Structures
1.
Amino acid sequence: MHGTASPPGKQTSRRKWIRDAATLLAAPSAASILPASVRAAAAGANGDVRLAFVGAQRRGDQLIDEFRKLPGVRVVAICDVDTQMFDRQLRKFDGKGRKPRTCVDFRRLLDAADVDALVVATPDHWHALMTVRACQAGKDVYVEKPVSHNLFEGRRMVEAARKYDRIVQAGTQNRSDVGLAAAREFLRQGKLGRIRLARGFDFPRRESIGKVDGPQPIPASVDYNLFMGPAPLLPLMRKNLHYDWHFVWPTGTGDCGNRGVHTLDHVRWLIGSEGLPAGAISVGGRFGYDDDGQTPNTQITLFDCRPVPVLWELMSLPAEKGAEEMPSFRGRRSSMVLECEGGYLTGGRGGATAWDWNNKRIEHFPGDGGRSHYANFLEAVRTRKREIQRAEILEGHASTAFCHVANVSYLTGAKRSPAEIRRSIAPHALLAEAFDRMAAHLAANEIDLETDRLVLGPMLILDAETERFSGQSADKANALTSRDYRQPFVVPEEV
């Protein structure tokens, strides 16, 4: 168990809070304490899928808008640890029927008779526990990417969905993009010949998250204990509580889990990769500013994957210092390049394009950004057909696992000079090529890798059946497949 001190700005003692949490976990069914009017409405749902949204910040805000557009959907509850989110969300329902109720603690939703499914858009470290508990309570779940904070959590989510026969959909909506679906069929028909290599790219411009000189005050509207949940209860040591949790390890998975999971997911889908990678090696670091972020903003990872290797690259600094434009690969800004015998395929969310090796366009596949992803989840909820889901939790777990393996390699690595890195990765020609490109990119941003060094991770070997590492650095790597959970927010060993 981590941390015993109460967070700054809170009057409630840690002891009282744990007592209250334990009482809540043993509380009577939420359905039994609902107002009579709500119980009556739940009994007469007329086929509506009744949704409760957990997390109403950026992505949660978008998901509320997307789901409420669809016919046969009723938003019955909105949950967030920050109460200042509620007014904005409730205004969306002015003059449009019954407003959803609000709550701060998601556990109030688990036994609610008028909730069919939870839509989870919280920080990464909450996804697994909420999904497991929802499955145990007989609820279906739409959970945002990355679906988990570590490998252990992802597998427990799959097990919970199977044991309780629940519909659990991952928020990797690129699998619903009509252009990518058409491109996938094009590849399956052999129109470009055999796929030889899959490249994934993420070039999101990221600025510094700032640097603080001490613990920051917690907004009065936030229940910080619930915000931290399974993570250590540590003082807030960054300027912004919200969103910047992505870039610290206790709550986030960096841009590998935030952005890379989408890219790696649609790459896996198009090349026909099943399950987890057999291993990976990662090189990276955080460069260009001195801030409170912990996760890499520059990272390359080579995955031992079937049917072909996958090389993923992250660059969050501009093409060169002071430039407005971001990096590109061979003059193209694309999240995916699949190299085949007869040409290559570029694209990502919004569609894809097939080219021959003379850079002549063969065919274009316009996409729609995966707009039907939410309707696909609802159809699965109504029909109880798990197999019709485009991003069922097992696929979400596999794609997220790629991100975890990349980050575990990075976290078990050590800082090395460019010469040391080149010697170590020389047997991996693809990684060596990507390293030269990354080094040139950092040099263009006036970063001296002799003094500001990159981290070289080990080549990890992963058993896809046990989801455990073996070989070099296995002990350190396996220690990162789970975490020490803070009571009472423990992801169970057995679901």
Note: The chain has 14 helices and 18 strands.
2.
Amino acid sequence: MNIGEAARASGMSAKMIRYYESIGVIGPAGRSGTGYRVYDERAVHLLRFVKRARSLGFPVERVNQLVALWRDHGRASAEVKRIALAQLGELEQRIGELETMKRTLEHLARHCHGDQRPECPILDDLAAAPAGKPQPARKRRRA
């Protein structure tokens, strides 16, 4: 099948297939007599594997490791589990960061009057110096 058919069969765009080929996540596709990429069912299965791994948030480096382990039938599942647990830890950290961002935005939105006045705690917070650095004194206008 050609790249368009492989893209449809795998649920991945042709552009992503070319990208994963260019960085070595998947091997080079076979070529037709006219130079077009040709994919078989095994290649499409690998593309689905890569797409699923990426949908779980695995970075490309870990996808490469997982592909190598998937191909190695003598592998120890302990290594696969180690990679999955490392990914889980990073996801938990990102979830914590996202929850913190959510709470901060909720707090700022609750304290913004949302009226015609120019004072806005949301903009004040965005303009503030990063945490850990001294903030310049701000003059407060009275409403």
Note: Residues 77-110 form the longest helix (34 residues).
3.
Amino acid sequence: MTSTTASVISFGCIFGGSLIGIALRSALSDRTLNSEKKDVLRLALGLITTLSALVLGLLISTAKGSYDNKRTQVKQIATNVIFVDRALKVYGPDASGVRKALQGQVAALIAQIEFSGAGSSTVRPSAQTDLSDFYRMVLQLSPRDEGQRTLKAEVLRSSLEIGRIRASTLARESTSIPVPFLVILVFWLTTLFAGFGLFATRDLLTVVALCVCALTVSTAIFLIFDMDQPLTGFMKLSIEPIRNALAVINDTP
């Protein structure tokens, strides 16, 4: 489920709940909805408000943490790419082909992240960004002295780290938020807004106010889903660090 779909469905349910509450208010008499019953309803709505606020805050915090984690991984990939290129340069002319292969791998990864998000909620690994061929090229290097052996070992270690972070960055579900969890949250919010409508007067200003409030809550749900998909969502994570790393290794002879 995309962030836009989730937020639109949530808005429809939540605002629809408030309209149902307003309709019920018109149908019920003052005798049916007396002061004692109103007090009980206010207590119930207060409980639902507290639960909904806690859950929304937890989801926003979790989604922000996931977004920040992916941003850190992008920076780590860029750092390791530059380190591997520098180590291969120090290794000597024998590693020039491996350096070219590294440039191609990084360029393919950038292209994959940039263009595979269109019409898809996930970024799937492709053969172009599979580091297996690069590993084999590094393994085929024949060190002539202890220094080259050390550099080869460091290149292999850092390359494996790049592969691990890359796999963690790209291997994503469409969303980590379970649909039943969202359904329950929207049900709570719909019930809450139905209660708001039950206490509201039937006029245009009230309807507009409830609509704005429902839009605000659905926007929060949009942010949660969008930050949970940092490489493909509206708030798409910047991969400028990897682009800068590619520019650095391309400019280094």
Note: Residues 45 and 221 are 20 Å apart (CA to CA).
4.
Amino acid sequence: MKEKRRWVLTDVDKQVWVETLNLTAGELGVRGAAFVRKRTLHGGLSDGVDVVEINNGAMSITVVPTRGMGVWRGEYKGNPVGWVSPVRGPVNPMFVHANERGGLGWLGGFDECIVRCGLENNGSPGTDVVPNNMGEPTEMTLNLHGRIANIPAHFVAVEVGKGATPEISVTGMVDEAMLFCPQLRLVTRISTRLGSNAFTITDEVVNLKSTTSEMQLLYHCNFGKPFMDRGARLVMPLAETAPRSAYPAKEVAEWSLYRAPTPGYIEQCFWHVPVGDAKGNTLALLRNAAGNKGVAVRFNLKQLPCFSQWKNTGAESDGYVTGLEPAVNFPNARVFERKNGRVVNLAPGRTYRVDLTVEVCGDAASVKKLEQEVRRLQGKTPHCLQPGPLAKYSPQA
């Protein structure tokens, strides 16, 4: 194949919308068992949801344009990538009521493997004071984790590159905009190479407004079995770790360790300051107890300097999962993050870029290789584990 090939699935401006698409390896112009499928779901809370499945011959991922171009689920050589949520999704945003339960309604659509939190805000629900359309300070209510995950894409396309191991990708555009409010556009490209054990998300957030806008962005990367089990660990190079809230000393000491599914378990969160290489590249690895399966999230600290770890080891029926969450901020209320300098101010027309890769390990050798990489990144940097929450990271301190 000499040139990149492209199939437009959605283009609202040109009134293009393709309900179903089935592209075989031959039609894609690649070898092996790769394919791309697009379909629209019907029935229940998924009614009207578009999904695009990309299979590179070894790994498959399902992207959901209807839900802000999130990644719903994946699989690599029989290993499911994602988690089992009590929510039966993917959920059409029309059924998600963000302000219910005190601003926690976002959870009514939460079952993706990777979901973006932002773009105007993320973190805990609460109030903030911003200028209204008259320029007057006005109190507004912010819901949990913002709006972007519940906004459909207005442009979606599938692309296939050229070369010996071509990339298969889905691109999309999602606008989070209101009159007199921030006008932010997410331009995303989710790609994987033929036969690869990884996929990459390349995002650009563009400020379409004529004035500076605030921006927050967190990648809620969620994994359960087979990477999470009793004795599983989070392995990553760190300079500092602090609990979000006051936890028992034993729980803090075991921040990296996961327990078996435990009915009634109350979620815990830890805030981390990662260590990277000279270019800012780093990774977080979740490996199972046996050390023969793992999933890693690679990111860059110049783009995503903060990292949150969400431990939710409740019963399997309640959602046995951990969140590995690189971000521009910690997921506290925006007013607290602004005070601590962790809210991006995006000038008119400016773009904020993020590159994030998810890599799956299906054997002990590949897990060990990533653990060695973490040790190299850690180097001689000491890891400071704080016994309790710190005022610079947590309003609970």
Note: Helices lie at 25-28, 100-103, 249-253, 316-319, 334-339, 364-378.
